[in-house]
Amino acid sequence: MSAATLPLSLLELASVPTGSDIRHTLLELRRYAQAADQLGLTRLWLAEHHNMEGIASSATSVLIADLAAHTERLRIGSGGIMLPNHPPLVVAEQFGTLAALHPGRIDLGLGRAPGTDPVTSRALHRDERRAERFPQEVAELQRLLGNGDEPGVRAYPGRNSDIPIWILGSSLFSAQLAAQRGLPYAFAGHFAPALAAEALALYRRQFQPSAALAEPYAILCLPLILADTDDEARYLGTSSQQRILSLLYGKPLYIPPPVDDMDKIWDAPSRMQVQNFLALSVVGSPQTVAFKLQQLRQRYVCDELMFTNDIYDREKRLRALELLPQVQALMANE
Fold it and tell me: What's the pTM value of the predicted model, to 2 decimals?
């Protein structure tokens, strides 16, 4: 796929800026989705997390409903629903309802991680062994959302909804499962960069065509900090660096304001951990970001790019979206 037609999308955790609250964060998220819609981006997905103070995307399907209701064209979906936390029938009914309200605009991305810690997993009544049954539960969801006439429980709403199912992951297991099932695949390079190249290559190499998908289709998700200048982008990027530090130390995950000097906050070992975590992060002006993305696409074969956009200032975050068409144009001309 040429850079001129490369789809660009967004991954969202409904992250709460320091000093803000959940209500204002979700209202700003609505405005963010509307801006993405108007700019012609392809999709916006929401990631399920639980018991993570500072991340407000726990009720993923509820947020999908709200954003879909306030946009017109943008595909809205899950990136993802952590399937071991939910009975497949419930997921099928919820997404069948969403698809009925917003036909042709709902994506169902599935993950097998809990999206939380072990204690919270138990609070969700999650059977830890269910992760081992992830392939079987994906197949059950395909059945529930399909148009077959097999006897047994049926999802209503859900049946005949033709909702695209995506396999999400950060490992070779997920890549192999997506390939075997003939499903589209999204790799979480925004937090697990080490296996990105190998997983994407394995997915394409082992892909088996299916009724859902004739050819492999893969998304690579990356952290993006885009601003008018390189210096501004580097400054804004310190918010994301601070938040990764909070994650490493088990602290709340609010997005903090940017700082002038990270060396006053981290030591050498923690700096290395953060840099490894954000190894695929793309930071800079439109010219710099376009150049970096072209380099990345030479190594990581993908059909679509999806970005996290962890910028503290909400107006600067919207500005990053406004600059994305410039990035596309620059990539197309290189």
Answer: 0.94
